[in-house]
Amino acid sequence: MESEGGNVAQERGQRWCGGEGSWPGVGGALGSGGLLFEMLRSTRKNSKSTWKVLIMDKFTVKIMSYACKMADITEEGVSLVEDLYKRRQPLPSLDAIYFIQPTKENIVMFLSDMSGRSPLYKKAYVFFSSPVHKELVAQIKKDSSVLPRIGALSEMNLEYFAIDSQGFTTDHERALEELFSENAEGSHKYNACLNTMATRISTVFASMREFPRVHYRVAKTINASTMTTLRDLVPTKLAAGVWNCLAKYKTTIPEFPQTETCELLIVDRSIDQIAPIIHEWTYDAMCHDLLCLDGNKYVHEVPSKNGSTTEKKEVLLEDHDPVWLELRHAHIADASERLHDKMTNFVSKNKAAQLHQARNGGEVSTRDLQKMVQALPQYSDQIDKLSLHVEIAGKLNNIIREQCLRDVGQLEQDLVFGDAGTKELINFLRTQLGVSRENKLRLLMIYAALNPEKFESDKGAKLMQLAGLSADDMIAVNNMRCLCGPDTKKSSGGGFTLKFDVHKKKQAHRKERTGEESAWALSRFYPVLEELIEKLSKGELPKDEYNCMNDPSPSFHGLPTSSSVRTSPAHSMRSRRTGGTWARPRGSDDGYSSDSVLKHASSDFKKLGQRIFVFVIGGATRSELCAAHKLSSKLKREVILGSSSLDDPPQFITKLKLMSVEEELTLDDLQI
Q: What sections of the protein cross the membrane (predicted)?
């Protein structure tokens, strides 16, 4: 069944928009997958039509693509997926499901579809992605020909994008530029960006029936002697926007909690300018930093069916892959060792694999493993996944060697922990001729974040000249100051909100973490956010740096304050609501079984503590996402990371460059 508009979903294959993460079956991050299936199934009760048409706008099709596969929604009775803004063939015998944003333009399109004597569809079930204004509802009610044809008119409150079992974005790729550039002051984009971001964050809490205690980083310059800049007020303004939305939910959404059930911390990129730039050594971070991935999509060559040639195959590095799930947060050296052990173990238990090994002088290559997939169909999936990750780890190790990344990484971490300074940096730039310009740029950006005062004199220019940076690169280094507070010269943390009183050989900007020593080299670095989350969990956020929009209600028990606070099941978020469980797989009653990242946690994990949400304005990093997973187990509280976007170092640097560009450019127009 095709129309002139085309089947949007089928044109794009199994994954509609190539999103960062697709959710297993029914279960989705923050319940997004479950909510969407709930939407599709709710239309069955009153509909006589077996098959339906699903109509979406550009924004909601992206939400759907992050949550479901085409095969999943076909199972729910959807035979055709259409674009609201493309000309469509009338199908008067079928009912239609509209999943759209509540905008004036979308309402006009919907009314033109369903009004008059010859509507495009028999009946319309309309679901809005966020709260709809009364004026727009009145506009729909005005049309007497449309009203009898509406089977449902509902608000889904679903405007976030799941990137992982514990992460989401609001899809604001230009947030750095629109909120923090010097041109942001007085720009209409500034307010528009903050307003939509607040709405999208709020839909997370609406869909999960959570009411947070809203903490936020306060402006660093609120005093009589200095003028507060708009960019310094971004977390304050966003917190106020989220709070306003939540206040409305308390009166408009059935069963929305009236007392606090969780924590939300809103910060911006100024808390840690190093995390988006430094080389992170986990398997996940290295894949996205060093390989040319399209989202989570990796393309590699496999033997063709006839075995004589090779063909390209696309795979997704995501939660469906058990090897990826196990290794993604492991150090690259640890991941490589574990893969070697897995392969050795597989060969030792498989006679066909042993024959391959004997034939090839004791070594089983990636290509051998790929050939085994054809020879041993019963093991095909297992060998397929294993050979894929052996190949990826091999590529990463080659890049690390070719680009001298161990030396680069060592200096990066020495600078951060105070074991190296200007002298060591200059010596490195003079002697390490094999280091790429991009990696020299990243070194200088770290140095600039730690020592912003050096770039207010000609010292910074001389260092950039020594590194051989281009004019474009220099823009990225200089724009680091847009992410610092205006008082950075006085800050002992060199632009960081958190100041550590640690004296080593040189001024240390991050303290060593006691009790977390790793056997792997280059694993000292940790994002500032990790420490902030731990402080939030203990109720120890610095009062002069973080405010709260709401005083805790008497029944709020997220913080270990008084022994008189009871945590009875009647008030426990975990026992009260299960609809918002993350990543619940099809056929599973427990959000922490099978596909869940937290599957190794105890069965009581989800009952132990209230969720902690953290939102980073200006882009989160993979090290911060990894910290959310790690701390969930450590704190026995599910930590969920949200951000305007999830950025790998090349993307983040490109966005810093865009902060100085006057004309409209896309992220693809600038390369680092």
A: none
Three-state DSSP string of 47-65: CCCCCEEEEECHHHHHHHH
Assign residue 5 a region (left: φ > 0; alpha: ψ between -120 and 50; beta: otherwise).
alpha
pLDDT at residue 464 tops 50: yes
Q: Which single residue is written with the structure tokens 């992460």? A: 167
Cβ pair 356, 372 in contact under 8 A: yes
3-class SS at 620? strand
Residue 519 confidence (pLDDT): 72
- Alpha-carbon distance of 271 to 268, in angstroms, equals 6
Quick check: helix, strand or coil at residue 237? helix
Long-range pairs of 597-601 with CB within 8 A, sequence gap ≥ 24: 597/164, 597/165, 597/166, 597/319, 597/325, 597/629, 598/165, 598/632, 598/633, 598/638, 601/632, 601/633
Look up residue 160 and give its two tokens: 């976030």
Burial class for 187, CB neighbours closer than 10 Å (0-12, 13-18, 19+): middle
How far apart are alpha carbons 85 and 83 in whole angstroms? 5
Q: In angstroms, rounded to a whole number, what is the distance separating the alpha carbons of residues 110 and 317?
A: 37
The SS3 assignment for 98 reads strand
Please state the length of the chain.
672
In whole angstroms, give the CA distance from residue 219 to residue 229.
9
- Composition of the chain by helix, strand, coil, percent to 5: 45, 15, 40
Q: How many secondary structure helices (H) and strands (E) does the chain include?
A: 24, 14
The model carries a pTM of 0.82
587: phi then psi, degrees, rounded to nearest 5: 80, 5
β-strand 167-169 against 161-164: which pairing, if any? Answer: antiparallel
How many Å apart are CA 200 and CA 158, to the nearest integer?
8
User: pLDDT, tens digit, for every residue of 73-82?
Assistant: 888 889 999 9
534-567 burial, b for 16+ CB within 10 Å, e for fewer? bebbeeebeeeebbbbbebeebbbbbeeeeeeee
Contact 235, 202 (CB under 8 A): no
Extended beta strands in 240-290, E state: 262-268
Q: What one-character DSSP code corresponds to residue 97? A: E
Q: Token pair of 245, please? A: 């939305």
Instruction: For residues 206 and 137, give the distance between their C-alpha atoms in angstroms, rounded to a whole number.
Output: 20
* Strands in 90-243 per DSSP E: 95-100, 124-128, 150-155, 161-164, 167-169, 212-217
Neighbours of 594 (CB within 10 A): 16
In a 3-state reduction of DSSP, which class is residue 135?
helix
Can you list the alpha helix ranges (DSSP code H) found in 68-103?
70-75
Cβ contact 69:23 at 8 Å = no
> For 251-285, how does the pLDDT look when each residue is reduced to its tens digit (9 = 90+)?
988 889 999 999 999 999 999 999 999 999 999 99
355/339 Cα distance (integer angstroms): 20
> Each residue of 287-335: pLDDT tens digit?
999 998 988 899 988 777 776 788 888 898 988 889 999 999 999 999 9
Are the CB atoms for 73 and 33 separated by under 8 Å? no
Task: With a cut of 50, say whether residue 209 has pLDDT above it.
Answer: yes
Residue with tokens 């035979």: 79
pLDDT digits (tens, 9 = 90+) for 85-96: 999 999 999 999
Q: Which two tokens stand for residue 532?
A: 């902030």
Residue 354 binned pLDDT confidence (cut-offs 50, 70, 90): low
Give the closest residue to 286 by CA, choosing from 375, 369, 392: 392
Q: How far is CA 629 from CA 50, 165, 445, 641, in A?
A: 42, 9, 28, 9
Three-state secondary structure of 73-108: HHHCCEEEEEECCCCCCCECCCEEEEEECCCHHHHH
Looking up tokens 């989350």 gives 533
- Torsion on CA atoms 45, 49, 53, 54, rounded to nearest 10: 0
Cβ atoms of 438 and 652 within 8 Å: the answer is no
Strands 150-155 and 124-128: parallel
